Amino acid sequence: MSMKKVSFDGAIDFSTVNLDEYKKNFQEGLKLARERFAKLKSQASIQDPVQFLRSYSEMDLELNETSSVFFNLLGSDGTPEMHAYAQEIQPELSKFGNEVALDTEIFKKIEQSRNEIKKTDFKEWSRFNDEVYRSFVRNGVNLPADKKEILKKIDEELGLLSLKFQENLIKDTAAFQLVVENEADLKGLPERNIEEAKQKAEAKNIKGFLLTLDAPTYIPFVTYVEKRELREKMWRAYATRCMKGEFDNKANCIRITNLKHQRALLLGFKSHADYVLKERMAKNPQTVKEFLLRVVSVSKAKAEKELAELKEFAKAEGFKEEFKPWDSAFYAEKLKKKVLNFDEEELRPYFPMEKVIQGLFDHATRLFGITFAERMDIPKYHPENRVYEVKDSDGSYLGLFYLDLFPREKKRPGAWMTYFRGQGSVGGKKLRPHVVNVCNFTKPTATKPSLLSFDEVNTLFHEFGHASHELLSNCEVRGLAGTNVWWDFVELPSQIMENWVNNEEGLKLVASHFETGASLPNELIEKIKASKKFLAASASLRQAQLALLDMAWHHDGPLATNPALKLDDHTDVEAFETLTLKPYLTMEKIPGTSLSPSFSHIFGGGYSAGYYSYKWAEVLDADAFEYFEEKGIYNREIADKFRREILSRGNTEDPDVLYERFRGRKPDPDALFRRDGLL
Fold first, then answer.
1. Diameter of the chain measured on Cα atoms
2. I need a labelling partner for 539 at 20 to 30 A (CA). Which of 1, 56, 142, 655 fits?
3. pLDDT tens-digit readout, 418-447
4. What are phi and psi of 313, to 5 degrees?
5. In CATH, what is the architecture of 14-101+103-142?
6. CATH class label, 349-497+504-531
């Protein structure tokens, strides 16, 4: 049974969505999928390979739809009851997934259709068939029965652990509250943040000001608040999330890592990283490490120099204590103001959310000719959502675009793109996608509209890049469409979009003063450009550190021979992280803190052994944007080429081939370092 829809393009009717509806749809969806699976297996032979593949890809259509809605809302608006039910339904979904993936009879049919379809001209379905065939092999279809049973148990437990990791992070982030009674203690904090803290306190009948760990609160707090002990308190709370108490994730880190390692060994790989990277542009852990160490070699010495300059500046400002991480953002902002005469808070009045959203849409129109019209008649899953109908330059319908922009207690931190329906054909009819961008941006206050930070504007463009990958996809096969590409390629469409808001033409589209309507002054535009290279080495090194930590967990960690690091003991998470990061740090790690228990990308999301993808894709996006700069950043010929060769093609060909067809050559690895001013 499918989710209830409204008449417009089968959009989900969220007014009818509740836990009972989910439960009924999951059970009926599982029943229907199993019936179709049995029917596919019973076919004597494959007469029409395309029809067989269509049926295979649509076998669990309704189940996937319910899963998509449920698990997307679990992260953005999940109730305690939904989190409890997720732990109940996840093992059933894993069980069905393994029933299919480990079934030798259906695999024989896949193998047969693969041989037959290569005789036809259906290249996209042939590509899909190859991907499905490799997936079966990679996931253990040829294992003996006893090992298949072990694999099933591992996958079921991993599904539950991933959910638990995310749930703990959501709850522990929401649990922290810093109450400040005296407004003078918040000296330095922007007025809008003080007003919001006052509103939060009033909403909970608390006297004073309430500060939380959501990004729009935390980042300004550690950047601007002059009272050092309060900055330290906030920083330590953020840096120790999920390290202790009810929401401790340390044991989950260990168990997830070891299960993934066991799974890789079972499937014939040396590590989880070897397993993952077999299907990535990088190909193997060695290539990834060489790439990341190249980033370190270019960045670290300069980052050490940047830190030394920051410490000297702090000393000159009268700072006499030992320099600590909770001092970094505070003095970096002061130094930027002195060196560049630039405070990023100057930009907020020029980035009212309404103008930024309209500017984003204008940007998309100039690049690709697409337009956005808000639809008030299409149901939303939360009152703060917005829904837009997206059309192509010829007026044809491209899809629905949902925006969910503000923090909530039930929402996980960060920003992401997802979809309720992907692009591709069902029953021979091409469907258009229903895409969602979820963020945690600065909320409006009683006296001011939502005024975004420059970083939030960048994030909006980044996530829209992912959305455009779906919205502009034009594939026949859903399993190959849109963002269903290798994970070190998926960040190219998102990261390239950030370049436009670091450029005068792009900035003019999104910025105007919320009170006067004045354009962003050229002086501020030049300061934005200069600020992109301010402490650029430190930012580059930070991303490399995160990626190297990921690789340590998923390539080196389970194989560690250091006797001090027994990875079956959750107390060693911090020690393992400290040992891993030590060669790459410019500032000593603070004891008692650890990133891993809140590193949701690799333990609760899909980026395990893949966090390097952000840096890898930065090389691609820097190189690709140089092409735009050569021709004009809104050059429609280049934009159409990017759409045609990258955005519309999904995984219908290898990403190396698609990129070279767009660029006319392989990417230049130094393009990134040129852009950051590190060469």
1. 82
2. 655
3. 999 999 999 989 999 999 999 999 999 989
4. -65, -45
5. Up-down Bundle (1.20)
6. mainly alpha
Question: How far is residue 643's CA from residue 493's CA, in Å, rounded to a whole number?
Answer: 10
Same fold, 246-347+535-611 and 349-497+504-531: yes
Give the architecture (CATH level 2) of 246-347+535-611.
Orthogonal Bundle (1.10)
Residues recognised as catalytic? 463
pLDDT at 561 over 60: no
Nearest-10 Cα torsion for 181, 184, 185, 190:
110
Backbone angles phi, psi at 426, to 5 degrees: -135, 125
For residues 640 and 651, what is the distance between their CA atoms, to the nearest angstrom? 18
For the chain, the 3-state helix, strand and coil shares in percent, each to the nearest 5, are 60, 5, 35
Boundaries of every domain in the chain:
14-101+103-142, 176-233, 246-347+535-611, 349-497+504-531
* 419: helix, strand or coil: strand
Q: What secondary structure does DSSP assign to 489-523, as a single string? A: TTTHHHHHHHGGGGSHHHHHHH-B-TTT-PBPPHH
Where does residue 251 rank: exposed (0-12), middle (13-18), buried (19+ CB within 10 A)? middle
Among residues 313, 317, 293, 219, the alpha carbon closest in space to that of 534 is found at 313
Give phi and psi for 10, each to the nearest 5.
65, 30
372 DSSP β-pair partners: 390
Rounded distance, CA 401 to CA 2, Å? 21
What value does the mean pLDDT take over residues 363-383?
A: 97
Residue 495 to residues 294, 468, 516, 528, 620: CA-CA distances in angstroms? 20, 12, 31, 18, 9
Secondary structure letter of residue 411 according to DSSP: S
Q: Does pTM surpass 0.85?
A: yes
Comparing CA positions, the residue from 338, 336, 332, 344 lying closest to residue 520 is 344
